[in-house]
Amino acid sequence: MKKIFLLSLIIGVSFSCAKKVSEENKTPKQQESKPAVIVGGDSDTHGCKGSAGYTWSSLKKECVRLFEIGTKLSHAEDGKTYSTVAYVIFDGNKAELFLDTQKEPILLERKSEGDSWTKGDYQLIPWKGYVLKKNGKIIIQDNKRL
């Protein structure tokens, strides 16, 4: 009796497993296709790779890494340091200003050596480092030159 019960149990389990395997083979699972992620494939319209720290400089006409070639301006006033970051690339009487609050850089120009660079509401003054004003109000005062 025990042998018959054990034999019927083994046969029942084997048929149920075979049926499950055959059902899995009949209904293929739909796999979601994910777009291939290309490492370093984040080029902008100029071909600059932002993930590698490059941004387009219209002044230099090339992709640049601001932290390597630009002058970093940090806002310091009354002993406090703020998180506003600005970079400037100088080329003769022109300066390209990159602000973290602006999507596009601002091209500033000066008339002669020693003058401030200006464009619209912005004015970059070389005074004990650099002072950046917007509408006559100081927005960045950098006390050191890098």
Short description:
Residues 1-18 form the signal peptide. This is Lipoprotein. This protein has 146 residues and is of the alpha+beta class.
Description of the structure:
With 146 residues, the chain is α+β, with helices and mostly antiparallel strands. The chain has a domain at 50-142. The protein contains two helices and ten strands, in the order H-E-E-H-E-E-E-E-E-E-E-E. It has a four-stranded antiparallel β-sheet with strand order 3-4-5-6. A four-stranded antiparallel β-sheet has the order 7-8-9-10, with no helix packed on it. A two-stranded antiparallel sheet has the order 1-2. The longest helix has 25 residues, at 2-26. It is rod-shaped. The model has no long low-confidence stretch (mean pLDDT 78).
The major sheet is characterized as: 4 strands, antiparallel
Mean pLDDT: 78
Which sequence of SSEs, written as H and E, runs from N to C?
Answer: HEEHEEEEEEEE
Structural class: alpha+beta
Stretches where pLDDT falls below 50 for ≥5 residues?
none
Distance from N terminus to C terminus (CA atoms, Å) equals 94 Å
Annotation keywords:
signal; alpha+beta; 146 residues; Lipoprotein
